What we know:
Blueprint: H1 3-14, H2 22-34, H3 39-63, H4 65-72, H5 76-92, H6 94-100, H7 106-116, H8 121-150, H9 153-191, H10 196-199, H11 203-219, H12 222-228
Amino acid sequence: MNTLAVYGLLALTTAPPLVPNAALLAWAGVLAADGDLHLALVLPVVAGSALLGDLLLHLAARRFGRPARAWMGRRARRRAFLERTSLLVDRYGVPFVAGVRFLPAGRVAAALVTGVVRYPVRRYLLGCAIAETLWASYSVGVGYLGTTATHSFVPALALSIGLSALVCGATALVQHVALRHLAVRSAQQVEAGEGGEDKGETGEEGAVEAVDAAAAEVGAQQDGGQENGVQ
């Protein structure tokens, strides 16, 4: 296959979310180890195209934020997901944006929530850049190192899939702990009489208004966040 076509295929399969490409990235590492591709070009292509996809998703979520909030407020599960994830974005910021990328469908979740609450674009891009650099490095790197060590594609592919599953599991565990911490803290606030009014809001309208309030709170920090670059 033509070298330029391989780079183009890598870009096309990493820019959109939810495209299975672990085998392709491991294969790119194999080709780099064999000298058919340049590792110094493969990594920027993979990470850069993924970052571009993240940005487009985020901007789309910002553009259609209110309809998205209304849609997510119609069902309890979607409403709870948006509310809890909004709290995590507000509390942990850039580290959360970087970490959630490694969860199943994490790219979509991070882009949707940060766009809906109008999280500062520069902070969002910083978190995504950290995540995509790490993701591209280990996804391509295991193919490169595996081929260098074993001179075989199959072990490299197994390493790539196994490492992806390990990272995903570790990130899911961290998110689970963070969510439990927020749940305990919210329960304590309710018992103490703090935030009881907000917790009492039920139904679609109340949920949308609560998320709107969270969006306003995050958006109020946007100017300062853009000046500082990081929180």
